[in-house]
Amino acid sequence: MTQPPTMPGGLPFLGKLPALARNPLAVFEQARSLGDVVRIPVPLRFPLFVLTNPAHIRHVLQENAANYRRTPFHDRLKAVLGEGMLTSEGALWQRQRRLLQPAFRAERIRRFVRIMAGAASDLAERWEAEAGRTIDVSQAMSDLTLDIAVGCMFGGQQRGGDARITAAVLEVQDWISGRFWSLAPEWTERLPTPANRRFRHALSVLDEAIEEIIAKRLAAAEPGDDLLGMLLAAQGDGDRGVDARQVRDEAMTMILAGHETSAAALSWAWHLLALHPEVEARIRDEVARVLGPRTVPTPGDLAQLAYTEATLQEAMRLYPPAGWFPRLAAAPDRLGGHDIPAGSIIALSPWVVQRDARFWPDPERFDPTRFIGEARPAPYTYFPFSGGPRTCIGNHFAMTEMLAALAVMVPRVRPRHGSNAPVEPHLQITLRPAGGLPMRIERVLDR
Ligand code: HEM
């Protein structure tokens, strides 16, 4: 047996648990200097390892993916997402992935560009009217991506966000991430503590919103050919079908997985553009060249916005919305000559790998040209959307909506920081600017 190095400095009885609960990314970053496979001492039911070598990450996510399963972390998510595609496993997961894959094909997503660009245009118009005022850009991005997710996947019409829903999403995230590193037994989740009560209330807000969307669609003459339509059409389809609970779980999964992540990426993109006006100017030039006098991009236009796309990729390199995610080793395995016992939790962190100077020279520097041209990042030195069979199904959807948002908004508006105070990342389930992103909105007058 070769044991991987164990990270020093854990507290008696608690190990690194308090540090993980406070800032898991800092702990994983510290582990990087100790080796490719490092054990983190925690008094949990499972050994915890962090991997920082891209070849090992590929092994876990791709080559030996069948051995690496959902974890207690995903079980915590089940309190909200049920058995949706993100949390389910085995035959159920396979059936869901197969059923919904067509909703995420490129030709389907092309049809959504109108909705995506329309929502971004509405927001640009509101921001133009609010020029000079300071708003929370992070909150505005949550509202925008929620509009887009509901509009594209569920045919909803709302505009300007729904503060109750975005607040409920944040509350639910807070509760789940707080519970994950907690040693308290599961039954304590049912105690009427203030945090548990707030969580239950937030969950009921989300459930009601989803129920309403489903009820409206059921009352309509046509099921529709969007994601919800596909789910409802599959209801009652014998063994291959889904039941009402499954429709609810999948809808909840798509709304939550599909809007907070893109909102985080767009928020960081605005933050970085404000710090790098030369990048912003180059995007504006590219959009002007490709769109000419038009203000709303077509799918064909988006395919030509190579620099704008590279900017989004670079923003997600520095600030990956999923800062880390876990896997559970079902059977023993070997990684880099070390034994990984069955039942281990493996932490994979895009944040740590994508800021590693071995793979990314001058890693802290924001430079979209890293993603321009023929050179592609080496496998698993860049994996904001994960990889392998359980790679993000919404990858192309997300890139399209974010491109549409920047292509519409950058030529019209320019958010700026009110002060030089550093903007710190805060990880709940997604990596967001701590305390929001207050920025002053300026109009771009020279268009
Ligand atoms: C910038 C935006 C996004 C990022 C960075 C992102 C990232 C990720 C990551 C890292 C995973 C793997 C999680 C794990 O296995 O534990 C994942 C899975 C998933 N994502 Fe995304 N995501 C984004 C947008 C979206 C969108 C727009 C949707 C839906 C419309 C979506 C739906 C899903 C689903 C359903 C899964 C589970 C897939 C499976 O296990 O088969 N995501 N995403």
Describe the structure.
With 447 residues, the protein is of the alpha+beta class. The protein has a domain of 302 residues: Orthogonal Bundle (Cytochrome p450), CATH 1.10.630.10. 50% of the residues lie in helices and 10% in strands. The strands form 4 sheets. Strands 1-2-8-5-3 form a 5-stranded mixed β-sheet. A 3-stranded antiparallel β-sheet has the order 4-12-9. It is globular and about 65 Å long. The model has no long low-confidence stretch (mean pLDDT 91). The structure holds protoporphyrin IX containing FE (HEM).
SSE succession: HHEEHEHHHEHHHHHHHHEEEEHHEEEE
Bound compounds? protoporphyrin IX containing FE
CATH level-1 class of one domain = Mainly Alpha
**How many runs of DSSP E, i.e. beta strands?**
12
What is the averaged pLDDT score?
91
Number of helices: 16
Which structural class do you get from the secondary structure elements?
alpha+beta
Termini Cα gap: 66 Å
Strand coverage percent:
5-15%
* Fourth-level CATH superfamily of one domain: Cytochrome P450
